[in-house]
Specification:
Blueprint: E1 24-31, E2 34-35, H1 42-52, E3 56-62, H2 66-76, H3 80-87, E4 94-98, E5 101-111, E6 123-132, E7 136-142, H4 149-156, H5 159-162, H6 166-199, H7 208-225, H8 229-237, H9 245-311, H10 326-347
Parallel strand pairs: 3-7
Antiparallel strand pairs: 1-2, 1-3, 4-5, 5-6, 6-7
Helix pairs in contact: 2-3, 6-7, 6-9, 7-9, 8-9, 9-10
């Protein structure tokens, strides 16, 4: 018998994989440092290189899914463990070797313009993974910032560097990411200097929460930047890695820049810790000042309160109750004592 479905019970649509070409930003074949004309799929590009016996393929991907990455892995014979890491973002910077293939993970950072007195996100992070083999380089980017189109165009203008092979792509990407660290660190440094000026300016509105927010963002920046030190050192100093000597020299310069940025970030953390202490001390001083003012006004207010309390007890025999000048005399006493207290507190900077 035929089966019927009631209203609102539609048959689930079958999952249709997205073509790999949707994730590919660019794919080029490079021979002797020059890009071959024409458009290639990643399979056709790899076949062209292996038929020629020279050159390499550079495939750039953006946010590939598991199906798309599996297609790339099948074509370039990438290790499943590295492919799994490439699909999932938020990886820790690292360098792994699978036979003749290197797998480098880098964390990208981007500075978010913001109001220094507002609690908001300051640093955004993403990922770039680089696979390099004897005849290919595959870059995988996660996130909407730190694009690699400019890196590719700049590298294509330097054929002598591209002629060094896939290692030139690895160096160019690492150099681009570390340069972005330098730019972000400079912007964060400006924020810290502005925060310092605000904290040490009298009667400002800077709160400890905004300093803590900036400190948290510096911690996130440190977690993205500092772990890259070990992979860069391995690329520079491990001789058995499949990298040309000239590429190692370039990477040594990248490692030096990275060390400088890491030192700056450590200084940022220390400066913000000192700013927190200064802000808390400033709050404590302000609270003490407020308490002195409150205490001074309470002391002044206590005089009329005390006298009014005494004369409000309604006893029959009290001094000056029947005197015509008793009421103004009491007011003169209250005003004299209160004025004397105000002058005394003002001279002592309590008011």
């Amino acid at each position: 018998m035929p089966s019927f479905r009631g209203p609102g019970r539609a048959t689930p649509a079958a999952w249709v994989p997205v073509p790999t070409a949707r994730a590919i930003v660019d794919c080029g074949v490079y021979v002797d440092g020059e890009r071959l004309p024409g458009r290639f799929t990643h399979e056709a590009a790899l076949a062209e290189v292996r038929e020629r016996g020279s050159g390499f393929v550079w495939v750039g991907l953006h946010d590939p899914d598991e199906h798309q990455m599996a297609d790339i892995a099948h074509a370039f014979d990438l290790h499943p463990l590295a492919v799994e890491d490439a699909v999932h973002a938020k990886q820790r910077p690292k360098l792994e070797r699978y036979d003749d293939t290197l797998f480098l993970v880098l964390r990208t950072v981007s500075y978010v313009p913001h109001d220094i007195h507002a609690i908001s996100e300051i640093v955004e992070t993403g990922d770039i993974m680089v696979f390099t083999g004897p005849d290919f380089a595959v870059t995988v980017r996660h996130g909407e910032h730190t694009g690699l189109a400019g890196v590719r165009h700049e590298l294509e203008s330097k054929p002598e560097q591209l002629a060094l092979g896939p290692g030139a792509v690895l160096h160019a990407v690492a150099d681009h990411v570390v340069d972005s660290y330098v730019d972000v660190a400079g912007s964060v440094e400006n924020d810290i200097e502005e925060m310092e000026e605000a904290v040490f300016t009298p009667r400002n509105l800077t709160t400890v929460e905004t300093i803590y927010q900036l400190k948290r963002e510096v911690v996130e920046l440190r977690r993205a930047v500092n772990p890259l030190a070990l992979p860069l050192q391995l690329l520079v100093h491990k001789p058995d890695l499949p990298l040309p000597k000239e590429i190692r020299r370039y990477l040594r310069d990248v490692a030096d820049h990275h060390t400088t940025v890491a030192e700056h970030i450590a200084d940022f953390d220390e400066s913000l810790s000192e700013l927190v202490s200064a802000a808390l001390a400033k709050i404590s001083v302000q609270q003490n000042t407020d308490m002195r003012k409150i205490s001074a006004w309470v002391a002044i207010a206590a005089v009329p309160t005390m006298i009014a309390g005494i004369y409000g007890m309604n006893f029959e025999h009290m001094p000056e109750l029947s005197s015509p000048w008793g009421y103004p005399a009491v007011w003169m006493v209250i005003l004299t004592i209160c004025t004397g207290l105000y002058v005394t507190f003002h001279r002592n900077n309590w008011l």
